[in-house]
């Protein structure tokens, strides 16, 4: 192989004996093999590996598989306040830390000469900048590219007046923003089939940020970019599924306690307790039809129209939001019901306008069960830790506050990481539904697959041993709609930043 990398490619004549019916004359026949590179041209090893990754990517396109990402970070706003993963982009591959965001569509990372991009991170992770000129497989996306046209339709892309360049400008709900241009390059990963690990890749379009504003400029929680998991055509999940590499479904399980972390797969996590509610159709975000809220089994007196989906209204599932938010008309009845339920056991107090409680024992034995009731007759059951945040302590007592925040005058409810943690969430884009179940996200999960023999099986996903080998567990159990057996890991070593 080293000789090959140095450009020592032999000119070969291959004698090929063909069956008599296929050849009328000139038997035996000879075929000339041409050089891939000129004799005097030195071929770098990285270039050859890049060519191989492209070829391996084509192998994968004949099978639908599962991509498994490592997850780091935590929901706790006093520690990190976000969950993030790692991606490998370009040739040679370069590592980037990106926030997991189901509330936006596009994967983007900071690029060289970026204005406002942080240079260091309080998360103690190295920050990198993508340079298209340093990747042998990178190319710019022009306005005439069909992929840019798809982005324009979903408002994820625009066209520069100079240079025919496909560009973007995003403004996020916290007031931060980014702008840049689109590139096409390889997303690199390891394909794990059975006990065999194969380096592979897929060509995707992602953003190259040249400007950042607002909180994105701050170093305390800085990451390299944002990984949008929305359902529009520019999202990575849509791009990979359209290439036949992954199914059009992804799942996550965000660990709430301890050091955080969790599991993120482009594929369907299978768990018997998962319940599903249909997505509201024709919406840019993951909107669910929230119908009512119950405290201790009793539905609150909230007009259902408060939760109805319309322009700039409705209930959105968003992993890029740290806390959770209720429409103004729902917030006051919700907080009032919680306070009334614990009035005999705790001391209520206000802290900067937020309802808090002074507690000397466990919240689980005092605070009521809450359920969010959705279309399809299913509920999302919340423990006290799913709607409360511990703020500080006063003597021997802990101060716990309502984690839900009030959104005034907008009619929007947002379910952020405070609610999403410690649950499996399945975003079934093909079936236009979202499923969930309470789960210990420090455990591995089962992803439905189909083996080459046709048997339906499970692949045990989400964790890697320190040697880099996947731990797989197989069960002879039929799963409808199961997928071809393939488990892909973007990282050889699964570790938690905060463990």
UniProtKB/TrEMBL annotation:
Under CDD domains, the record lists: pepsin_A_like_plant
Active site (catalytic residues)? 101, 318
Q: Where is the Peptidase A1 domain?
A: 83-437
Q: Which GO terms describe its molecular function?
A: aspartic-type endopeptidase activity
Kindly give the Gene3D superfamilies that the UniProt entry links to this protein: Acid Proteases
Q: Which family does it belong to?
A: Belongs to the peptidase A1 family.
What is the name attached to this protein's record? Peptidase A1 domain-containing protein
């Amino acid at each position: 192989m080293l000789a090959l990398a140095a450009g020592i490619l032999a000119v070969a004549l291959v004698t090929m004996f063909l069956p008599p019916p296929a050849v009328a004359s000139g038997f035996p026949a000879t075929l000339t093999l041409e050089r891939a590179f000129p004799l005097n041209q030195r071929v770098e090893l990285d270039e050859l590996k890049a060519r191989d990754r492209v070829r391996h990517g084509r192998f994968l396109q004949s099978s639908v598989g599962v991509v498994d990402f490592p997850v780091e970070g935590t929901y706790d706003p006093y520690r990190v306040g976000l969950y993030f993963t790692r991606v490998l982009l370009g040739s040679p591959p370069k590592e980037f830390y990106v926030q997991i965001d189901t509330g936006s569509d596009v994967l983007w990372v900071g690029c060289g000469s970026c204005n406002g991009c942080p240079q260091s991170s309080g998360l103690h992770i190295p920050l990198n900048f993508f340079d298209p000129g340093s990747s042998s497989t990178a190319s710019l996306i022009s306005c005439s590219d069909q992929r840019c046209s798809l982005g324009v339709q979903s408002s994820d892309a625009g066209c520069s007046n100079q240079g025919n360049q496909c560009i973007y400008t995003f403004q996020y709900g916290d007031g931060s923003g980014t702008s840049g241009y689109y590139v096409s390059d390889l997303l690199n990963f390891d394909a794990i089939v059975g006990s065999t690990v194969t380096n592979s890749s897929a060509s995707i379009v992602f953003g190259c940020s040249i400007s950042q504003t607002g909180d994105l400029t701050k170093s305390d929680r800085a990451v390299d970019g944002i990984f949008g998991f929305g359902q529009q055509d520019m999202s990575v999940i849509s791009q990979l599924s359209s290439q036949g590499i992954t199914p059009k479904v992804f799942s996550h399980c965000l660990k709430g306690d301890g050091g955080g972390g969790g599991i993120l797969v482009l594929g369907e996590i299978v768990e018997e307790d998962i319940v599903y509610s249909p997505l509201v159709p024709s919406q840019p975000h993951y909107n669910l039809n929230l119908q009512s809220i119950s405290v201790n089994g009793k539905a609150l007196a909230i007009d259902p129209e408060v939760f109805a989906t319309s322009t700039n209204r409705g209930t959105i599932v968003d992993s890029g939001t740290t806390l959770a938010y209720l429409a103004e008309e729902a917030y006051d009845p919700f907080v009032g019901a919680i306070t009334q339920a614990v009035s005999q056991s705790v001391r209520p107090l206000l802290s900067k306008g937020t309802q808090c409680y002074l507690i000397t024992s466990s919240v689980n034995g005092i605070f009521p069960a809450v359920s969010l009731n959705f279309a399809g007759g299913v509920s999302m059951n919340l423990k006290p830790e799913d709607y409360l945040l511990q703020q500080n302590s006063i003597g021997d007592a802990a101060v716990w506050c309502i984690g839900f925040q009030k959104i005034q005058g907008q009619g929007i409810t947002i379910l952020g990481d405070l609610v999403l943690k410690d649950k499996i969430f399945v975003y079934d884009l093909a079936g236009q539904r979202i499923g969930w179940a309470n789960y210990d996200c420090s455990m591995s999960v089962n992803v439905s697959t189909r083996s080459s023999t046709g048997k339906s099986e499970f692949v045990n996903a989400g964790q890697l041993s320190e040697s880099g080998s996947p731990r797989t567990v197989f069960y002879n159990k039929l799963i409808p709609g199961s997928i071809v057996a393939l488990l892909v890991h973007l990282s050889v070593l699964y570790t938690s930043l905060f463990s």
